[in-house]
Design brief:
Blueprint (H helix, E strand, L loop, with lengths): L25 H17 L5 H5 L1 H9 L5 H15 L2 H13 L9 H5 L3 H16 L13 H11 L6 H5 L1 H13 L5 H10 L5 H13 L46 H6 L2
Helix pairs in contact: 1-8, 1-11, 3-4, 4-11, 10-11, 10-12
């Protein structure tokens, strides 16, 4: 039985992958696809459906061929399976929703709250549509589980390009999760094991990003296009109202200096 088959019981869809580099065997292509799919699933919010599928996910992880990525996922799967659903949800919200340095929205690390982020989100969404793929999750196109699902279904060339482009952000997320002593660090470590190694420039950039934070603009949230691209829960200011114009006083409102007129007004 193919190792992908158990995941058909979970909420993702199985689609044929595009051609991969020639140096990968069919078995290696299938394993890489499964690793990316598992990372996508394990980084989603642990709602009732995902929590109920923990045994299936754990068995899929245990069936992976030995590799650094598989070892990292096995470490995470042990905690994920043994932890109660309520504790899983509390921990997920704490590390991903309440910490800026471990947010799962990748373009934030590259562009911050600037106009360029809106364009990056639009470009990513157009890339998905160009391949005929839609996530159907309701999430932003840069949400890491969405990017991982796209990579698993599309292939290592174009499909994994967004992951390679945001490698520095992924490294910062991994470090932040490690500092918080979160088991989710293992999932990020598994993903990074599939990507090209970090260069010295990457490591310097990550250190600077951790110290200074992403770019910022004092222009509000224009890049989010009125809330279309804003992450869930982000405050988007309403459009400004037109200025209130006070009419100029008419002649009757100006006191007259003519004595006859003053007499008539008495």
């Amino acid at each position: 039985m193919s190792p992908l088959n158990p995941l058909q019981a979970v909420r993702t869809r199985i689609r044929p992958a595009a051609r991969r580099p020639a140096d990968l065997t069919p078995e290696e292509r299938e394993t890489r696809c499964l690793l990316l799919r598992l990372c996508s699933l394990l980084l989603q919010y642990p709602d009732d459906e995902l929590a109920a599928a923990r045994a299936v996910l754990d068995s899929s992880v245990r069936a992976l061929p030995d590799s650094p990525a598989a070892a990292e996922l096995a470490e995470f799967a042990g905690w994920f399976t043994a932890t109660g659903p309520d504790d899983l949800r509390r921990h997920y919200v704490e590390v991903f929703d309440l910490r800026r340095k471990s947010s799962l929205y990748l373009t934030y690390y590259l562009h911050g709250d600037t106009r360029r982020r809106g364009m990056a989100l639009l470009t990513l969404a157009q890339c998905y549509r160009a391949t005929g793929w839609e996530s159907g999750s309701g999430e932003l196109p840069d949400h890491l589980p969405v990017v991982l699902e796209y990579a698993a279904l599309t292939g290592t060339a174009a499909g994994e390009a967004p992951l390679r482009r945001h490698r520095r952000g992924l490294e910062l997320i991994r470090r932040s999760l490690g500092a918080a002593d979160s088991p989710y660090e293992h999932v990020l470590a598994a993903l990074l094991a599939l990507l090209p190694p970090a260069t010295d420039a990457d490591l310097r950039a990550v250190a600077e990003l951790a110290a200074a934070g992403p770019p910022a603009e004092d222009v509000g949230l224009d890049p989010f296009d009125g809330g279309v691209f804003a992450p869930p829960g982000t405050f988007v200011p309403p459009a400004p109202e037109p200025p209130t114009r006070v009419p100029a006083p008419g002649p009757a409102a100006v006191p007259s200096t003519d004595p006859t007129t003053r007499e008539n007004l008495r």
